[in-house]
Protein backbone atom coordinates (compact mmCIF):
# COMPACT_ATOMS: atom_id res chain seq x y z
CA UNK A 1 0.00 0.00 0.00
CA UNK A 2 2.71 2.49 0.96
CA UNK A 3 4.79 1.65 -2.13
CA UNK A 4 1.90 2.20 -4.50
CA UNK A 5 0.98 5.47 -2.81
CA UNK A 6 4.56 6.71 -2.98
CA UNK A 7 4.75 5.90 -6.70
CA UNK A 8 1.58 7.82 -7.46
CA UNK A 9 3.02 10.90 -5.75
CA UNK A 10 6.36 10.67 -7.58
CA UNK A 11 5.86 13.19 -10.37
CA UNK A 12 9.32 12.82 -11.86
CA UNK A 13 8.87 9.08 -12.24
CA UNK A 14 5.43 9.60 -13.75
CA UNK A 15 6.78 12.10 -16.29
CA UNK A 16 9.72 9.86 -17.20
CA UNK A 17 7.45 6.87 -17.72
CA UNK A 18 5.01 8.92 -19.79
CA UNK A 19 7.77 10.32 -22.03
CA UNK A 20 9.22 6.85 -22.47
CA UNK A 21 5.82 5.49 -23.45
CA UNK A 22 5.18 8.16 -26.10
CA UNK A 23 8.77 8.46 -27.32
CA UNK A 24 7.88 7.09 -30.76
CA UNK A 25 4.62 9.01 -30.98
CA UNK A 26 4.25 12.53 -32.38
CA UNK A 27 4.32 15.39 -29.87
CA UNK A 28 1.31 17.57 -29.22
CA UNK A 29 3.23 20.36 -30.92
CA UNK A 30 6.81 21.44 -31.56
CA UNK A 31 8.53 24.71 -30.68
CA UNK A 32 11.67 25.81 -32.55
CA UNK A 33 13.74 28.25 -30.47
CA UNK A 34 16.00 30.52 -32.53
CA UNK A 35 18.15 33.41 -31.25
CA UNK A 36 15.81 36.16 -32.47
CA UNK A 37 12.49 34.39 -32.89
CA UNK A 38 10.62 31.16 -32.29
CA UNK A 39 8.42 29.00 -34.50
CA UNK A 40 5.40 26.90 -33.61
CA UNK A 41 5.47 23.64 -35.56
CA UNK A 42 6.43 24.68 -39.10
CA UNK A 43 4.37 27.83 -39.16
CA UNK A 44 5.07 31.53 -38.91
CA UNK A 45 7.84 33.19 -36.94
CA UNK A 46 7.02 34.88 -33.64
CA UNK A 47 9.12 37.34 -31.67
CA UNK A 48 9.83 36.58 -28.03
CA UNK A 49 7.91 39.64 -26.85
CA UNK A 50 4.90 38.79 -29.02
CA UNK A 51 1.53 38.25 -27.35
CA UNK A 52 1.57 34.58 -28.35
CA UNK A 53 4.85 34.18 -26.43
CA UNK A 54 2.73 33.58 -23.32
CA UNK A 55 2.67 30.03 -24.65
CA UNK A 56 6.37 29.77 -23.76
CA UNK A 57 5.60 30.79 -20.18
CA UNK A 58 3.07 27.97 -19.92
CA UNK A 59 5.59 25.49 -21.32
CA UNK A 60 8.16 26.68 -18.81
CA UNK A 61 5.67 26.18 -15.97
CA UNK A 62 4.69 22.70 -17.25
CA UNK A 63 1.01 23.65 -17.48
CA UNK A 64 -1.44 23.25 -20.35
CA UNK A 65 -2.13 26.71 -21.86
CA UNK A 66 -5.75 27.33 -20.94
CA UNK A 67 -6.04 30.25 -23.39
CA UNK A 68 -5.35 27.93 -26.33
CA UNK A 69 -7.49 24.94 -25.36
CA UNK A 70 -10.14 25.70 -27.98
CA UNK A 71 -7.42 25.99 -30.62
CA UNK A 72 -5.92 22.65 -29.61
CA UNK A 73 -9.36 21.06 -29.60
CA UNK A 74 -10.22 22.32 -33.08
CA UNK A 75 -6.81 21.24 -34.39
CA UNK A 76 -7.18 17.84 -32.66
CA UNK A 77 -3.68 17.88 -31.26
CA UNK A 78 -2.83 14.65 -29.41
CA UNK A 79 -3.07 14.42 -25.64
CA UNK A 80 -1.43 11.63 -23.67
CA UNK A 81 -3.04 10.60 -20.38
CA UNK A 82 -4.54 14.06 -20.12
CA UNK A 83 -1.17 15.76 -20.64
CA UNK A 84 0.46 17.46 -23.61
CA UNK A 85 3.92 16.45 -24.79
CA UNK A 86 5.85 19.36 -26.28
CA UNK A 87 9.03 18.93 -28.28
CA UNK A 88 11.56 21.75 -27.96
CA UNK A 89 14.24 22.23 -30.61
CA UNK A 90 16.75 24.79 -29.37
CA UNK A 91 18.95 26.32 -32.08
CA UNK A 92 20.53 28.87 -29.73
CA UNK A 93 24.02 28.89 -28.24
CA UNK A 94 24.12 27.43 -24.75
CA UNK A 95 26.52 30.08 -23.47
CA UNK A 96 27.39 33.64 -24.39
CA UNK A 97 29.92 34.05 -27.24
CA UNK A 98 29.57 30.40 -28.22
CA UNK A 99 28.81 29.54 -31.87
CA UNK A 100 25.37 28.33 -32.81
CA UNK A 101 25.05 24.54 -32.70
CA UNK A 102 25.01 22.59 -35.94
CA UNK A 103 22.04 20.59 -34.73
CA UNK A 104 19.33 21.76 -32.34
CA UNK A 105 19.13 20.42 -28.83
CA UNK A 106 16.02 18.25 -28.62
CA UNK A 107 14.05 17.88 -25.41
CA UNK A 108 10.51 16.87 -24.56
CA UNK A 109 8.47 18.27 -21.71
CA UNK A 110 5.03 17.45 -20.39
CA UNK A 111 2.32 20.02 -19.75
CA UNK A 112 -0.11 19.07 -17.02
CA UNK A 113 -3.75 20.02 -16.47
CA UNK A 114 -4.72 22.38 -13.67
CA UNK A 115 -7.95 23.76 -12.17
CA UNK A 116 -8.22 26.36 -14.95
CA UNK A 117 -7.99 23.78 -17.72
CA UNK A 118 -10.43 21.53 -15.87
CA UNK A 119 -12.99 24.34 -15.76
CA UNK A 120 -12.36 25.17 -19.43
CA UNK A 121 -12.82 21.51 -20.39
CA UNK A 122 -16.14 21.37 -18.56
CA UNK A 123 -17.31 24.53 -20.34
CA UNK A 124 -16.29 23.06 -23.70
CA UNK A 125 -18.11 19.80 -22.97
CA UNK A 126 -21.19 21.78 -22.00
CA UNK A 127 -21.06 23.76 -25.26
CA UNK A 128 -20.76 20.56 -27.30
CA UNK A 129 -23.79 19.21 -25.44
CA UNK A 130 -25.86 22.21 -26.44
CA UNK A 131 -25.23 24.29 -23.31
CA UNK A 132 -28.02 22.54 -21.42
CA UNK A 133 -26.06 21.47 -18.35
CA UNK A 134 -27.19 22.62 -14.94
CA UNK A 135 -24.81 23.43 -12.11
CA UNK A 136 -25.48 19.97 -10.71
CA UNK A 137 -24.53 18.34 -14.02
CA UNK A 138 -21.29 20.32 -14.16
CA UNK A 139 -20.41 19.36 -10.59
CA UNK A 140 -21.04 15.69 -11.32
CA UNK A 141 -18.75 15.82 -14.36
CA UNK A 142 -16.10 17.65 -12.33
CA UNK A 143 -16.25 15.05 -9.56
CA UNK A 144 -15.81 12.20 -12.05
CA UNK A 145 -12.85 13.93 -13.70
CA UNK A 146 -11.17 14.60 -10.37
CA UNK A 147 -11.78 11.04 -9.24
CA UNK A 148 -10.14 9.72 -12.42
CA UNK A 149 -7.13 12.06 -12.43
CA UNK A 150 -6.10 12.75 -8.84
CA UNK A 151 -3.79 10.45 -6.84
CA UNK A 152 -5.44 8.05 -4.39
CA UNK A 153 -6.43 9.58 -1.09
CA UNK A 154 -4.52 8.20 1.88
CA UNK A 155 -6.83 7.54 4.83
CA UNK A 156 -4.12 5.93 6.96
CA UNK A 157 -3.69 8.02 10.13
CA UNK A 158 -0.03 6.99 10.35
CA UNK A 159 1.94 10.30 10.35
CA UNK A 160 5.10 8.58 9.07
CA UNK A 161 3.35 7.57 5.85
CA UNK A 162 2.14 11.15 5.37
CA UNK A 163 5.66 12.50 5.85
CA UNK A 164 7.04 10.02 3.33
CA UNK A 165 4.41 10.91 0.74
CA UNK A 166 4.91 14.66 1.24
CA UNK A 167 8.69 14.32 1.07
CA UNK A 168 8.53 12.30 -2.15
CA UNK A 169 6.13 14.83 -3.68
CA UNK A 170 8.41 17.77 -2.84
CA UNK A 171 11.57 15.98 -3.94
CA UNK A 172 10.14 14.66 -7.19
CA UNK A 173 8.30 17.77 -8.39
CA UNK A 174 10.21 19.06 -11.45
CA UNK A 175 11.82 22.44 -10.97
CA UNK A 176 10.82 25.30 -13.24
CA UNK A 177 13.51 25.69 -15.92
CA UNK A 178 15.09 28.92 -17.06
CA UNK A 179 12.85 31.13 -19.15
CA UNK A 180 12.60 30.14 -22.81
CA UNK A 181 12.66 33.80 -23.73
CA UNK A 182 15.83 35.69 -24.59
CA UNK A 183 15.76 38.34 -21.85
CA UNK A 184 16.71 36.22 -18.88
CA UNK A 185 17.42 39.32 -16.77
CA UNK A 186 13.71 40.10 -16.69
CA UNK A 187 12.63 36.63 -15.55
CA UNK A 188 11.74 37.62 -12.00
CA UNK A 189 9.76 40.67 -13.10
CA UNK A 190 7.92 38.62 -15.75
CA UNK A 191 7.03 35.96 -13.19
CA UNK A 192 5.57 38.53 -10.79
CA UNK A 193 3.54 40.25 -13.50
CA UNK A 194 2.37 36.94 -14.97
CA UNK A 195 1.19 35.72 -11.57
CA UNK A 196 -0.67 39.00 -10.99
CA UNK A 197 -2.46 38.62 -14.33
CA UNK A 198 -3.39 35.02 -13.56
CA UNK A 199 -4.86 35.94 -10.17
CA UNK A 200 -6.77 38.89 -11.64
CA UNK A 201 -8.15 36.71 -14.43
CA UNK A 202 -9.42 34.12 -11.95
CA UNK A 203 -10.96 36.76 -9.68
CA UNK A 204 -12.58 38.61 -12.59
CA UNK A 205 -13.97 35.54 -14.35
CA UNK A 206 -17.41 36.26 -15.71
CA UNK A 207 -16.73 39.99 -16.03
CA UNK A 208 -15.52 40.49 -19.64
CA UNK A 209 -15.50 44.26 -19.23
CA UNK A 210 -12.78 44.10 -16.60
CA UNK A 211 -9.77 45.86 -18.11
CA UNK A 212 -7.31 43.99 -15.91
CA UNK A 213 -8.21 40.68 -17.46
CA UNK A 214 -5.40 39.16 -19.49
CA UNK A 215 -6.20 39.59 -23.18
CA UNK A 216 -6.80 36.53 -25.29
CA UNK A 217 -5.00 36.08 -28.62
CA UNK A 218 -6.32 38.24 -31.42
CA UNK A 219 -8.14 36.73 -34.38
CA UNK A 220 -5.16 37.36 -36.65
CA UNK A 221 -2.73 35.60 -34.34
CA UNK A 222 -5.11 32.70 -33.81
CA UNK A 223 -5.45 32.37 -37.58
CA UNK A 224 -1.67 32.17 -37.91
CA UNK A 225 -1.54 29.51 -35.21
CA UNK A 226 -4.32 27.51 -36.81
CA UNK A 227 -2.28 27.38 -40.00
CA UNK A 228 0.60 25.77 -38.10
CA UNK A 229 -1.58 22.83 -37.05
CA UNK A 230 -2.77 21.96 -40.56
Automatic annotation (TrEMBL):
Residues 24-167 form the Spt20-like SEP domain. GO terms for cellular component: SAGA complex. It comes from the Eukaryota. GO terms for molecular function: transcription coregulator activity. One of its GO terms (biological process) is regulation of transcription by RNA polymerase II. PANTHER family: TRANSCRIPTION FACTOR SPT20 HOMOLOG. This is Spt20-like SEP domain-containing protein. The lineage of its organism: Eukaryota, Fungi, Dikarya, Basidiomycota, Agaricomycotina.
Amino acid sequence: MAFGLTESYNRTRYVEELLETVDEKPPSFTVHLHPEFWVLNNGSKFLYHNQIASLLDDIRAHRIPVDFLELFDSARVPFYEGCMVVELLDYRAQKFNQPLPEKPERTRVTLHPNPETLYADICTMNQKSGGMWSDKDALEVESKLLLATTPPLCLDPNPHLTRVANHVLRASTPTIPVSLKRKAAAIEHEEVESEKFRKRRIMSHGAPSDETRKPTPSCVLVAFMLMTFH
